[in-house]
Amino acid sequence: MASRRILQIGGATVAVGSVYYLYSAGGNPKVAEKKLEHDMSAAGARLQGKDLSATEAQKKGEVWAKEAGATLDRTVDSVRGEIRQADSIVTAKMHEAGSKVDQLKDESTKHLKDAYKDTSKELQQTADNFDKTVTKKTAEAKSGISSWLGFGK
After folding, report:
1. Helices assigned H by DSSP within 25-153
2. Residue 59 in contact with residue 70, Cβ under 8 Å?
3. For 31-89, what is each residue's pLDDT tens digit?
4. In which band, very low, low, confident or very high, does the pLDDT at 116 lie, cut at 50, 70 and 90?
């Protein structure tokens, strides 16, 4: 019974410690693992009476700074690549849109010219028909008036 209770307390302690290190690392398990390893080595050094010296701490800090700098550089390079890719996509889409506008402008101009030609042709035909009708009716009227007056054909 006592060993079971000890296991429960030990398991709870491990779980709480895991959550603490994971939370303090911002959810990154690798960083949490590094912090746990550092704390364990520091605790072991204290138990053995060997505290880390300032130069060793500085060396470890420099190593971590280099790792963080490398990670930052990779992230910046990745973001720059994505920005370049997005820029090329936007440029291509702008060219495509410009081509579409030009195509639509050309098609609209063609349709307007065709409509102008058709309307002009119809107007000309109507004017010709009107002119023929007027000429015919004028000739009929003229012959009718002439026959009344005795001028006949």
Report:
1. 29-48, 54-149
2. no
3. 777 887 887 787 777 666 666 566 777 888 888 999 999 999 999 999 999 999 999 99
4. very high
CB 143 within 8 A of CB 152: no
**Cβ neighbours of residue 36 closer than 8 Å, sequence gap 6 or more:** 17, 21
Distance CA(129)–CA(11), nearest Å, equals 106
Residue closest to 32 by CA, chosen among 44, 45, 20, 41: 20
Q: Which amino acid is at 49?
A: G
Q: Which residue has the higher pLDDT, 20 or 102?
A: 102
Cβ–Cβ contacts within 10 Å for residue 18, how many?
13
Determine phi and psi for 50, rounding to 5 degrees: -115, 85
Contact 42, 34 (CB under 8 A): no
Q: Name the DSSP class of 1.
A: -
In angstroms, rounded to a whole number, what is the distance separating the alpha carbons of residues 66 and 88? 33
